[in-house]
């Protein structure tokens, strides 16, 4: 079951008010499992029902669990979502949240954050340590005490691998100031309006024979579900005979006109397969002809291997 189907299943359970059948709560010796999901799909930009997913998984209703005696922790990948939307953790309670400052501000690269509930910290057993991250250490025996082990106000220091990227961290204040100045609500409204307009315009494009020029991937058709969609558009373009224009061709033509696009599967192979309607046999045939991630093989046997993503922002 892919994430879209699982999310729909969870939504149906919540709407129907049903409870999962769990005969007992996890014990103190229960195994620990992690369920990770994106707050916003990086391919279709569909925003998942975060509260429903987190609550159902915490309640032990994850259908793919191989063991009933399992304690589930939940990680929400909010990197895409928080770029243009406020994440309210007072109403949604995952154990871990990951985000990327690059996706919010465009700078600095390689810097993100892991936000975790204090109750979940004990499950993370970090073995590696780097310079400046230990409280005490002995050279003659296997003895090391990481920083933050005896100070609840400095628990994050135990997860640092050596010298922090302090210059990049200093740059964050300017990005945060810019977002506060504009207001995240204004950023959300602006980008959602741009996406709705773009989807409407793309949907209206037709060839001389009435066939559509563009197919948009996702679960909406425009403005009515703007709050459930992120500010990107994943699509493919079609010729007048309904055959696909390869995304590499679109990318190269756009570059000529100084338009930057991202093409391919956007590091989301599951969603890419789902929305393009590709079977595992199709994927294996793509591999057999030499297709790999990041290449220019964009159409195989008449079917696309990826898509074009149009990204919208506030600058």
From TrEMBL:
Transmembrane segments: none annotated. It comes from the Eukaryota. Pfam families: Aminotran_5. Residues 69-269 form the Aminotransferase class V domain. Signal peptide: none annotated. PANTHER family: MOLYBDENUM COFACTOR SULFURASE (PTHR14237:SF80), MOLYBDOPTERIN COFACTOR SULFURASE MOSC (PTHR14237). This is Aminotransferase class V domain-containing protein. It comes from Peronospora belbahrii. The lineage of its organism: Eukaryota, Sar, Stramenopiles, Oomycota, Peronosporomycetes.
């Amino acid at each position: 079951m892919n994430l879209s189907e699982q999310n729909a299943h969870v939504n149906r359970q919540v709407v129907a008010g049903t409870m999962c059948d769990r005969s007992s709560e996890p014990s103190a010796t229960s195994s620990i499992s992690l369920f990770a999901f994106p707050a916003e799909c990086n391919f279709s930009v569909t925003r998942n029902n975060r509260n429903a997913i987190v609550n159902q998984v915490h309640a032990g209703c994850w259908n793919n669990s191989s063991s009933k005696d399992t304690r589930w922790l939940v990680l929400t990948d909010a990197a895409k979502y928080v770029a243009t939307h406020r994440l309210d953790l007072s109403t949604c309670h995952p154990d871990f949240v990951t985000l990327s400052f690059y996706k919010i501000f465009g700078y600095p690269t390689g810097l993100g954050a892991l936000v975790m509930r204090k109750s979940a910290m004990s499950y993370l057993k970090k073995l590696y340590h780097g310079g400046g991250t230990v409280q005490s250490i002995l050279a003659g025996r296997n003895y090391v005490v990481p920083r933050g082990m005896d100070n609840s106000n400095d628990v994050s220091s135990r997860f640092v691998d050596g010298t922090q990227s302090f210059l990049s961290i200093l740059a964050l204040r300017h990005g945060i100031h810019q977002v506060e100045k504009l207001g995240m609500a204004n950023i959300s409204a602006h980008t959602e309006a741009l996406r709705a307009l773009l989807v409407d315009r793309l949907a209206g494009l037709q060839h001389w024979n009435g066939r559509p020029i563009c197919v948009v991937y996702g679960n909406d058709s425009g403005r009515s579900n703007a709050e459930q969609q992120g500010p990107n558009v994943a699509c493919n373009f079609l010729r007048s005979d309904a055959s696909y224009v390869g995304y590499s061709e679109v990318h190269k033509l756009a570059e000529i006109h100084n338009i930057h696009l991202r093409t391919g599967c956007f590091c989301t192979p599951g969603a890419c397969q789902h929305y393009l309607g590709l079977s595992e046999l199709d994927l294996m045939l793509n591999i057999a002809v030499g297709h790999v991630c990041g290449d220019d093989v964009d159409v195989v046997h008449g079917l696309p291997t990826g898509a074009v993503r149009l990204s919208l922002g506030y600058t």
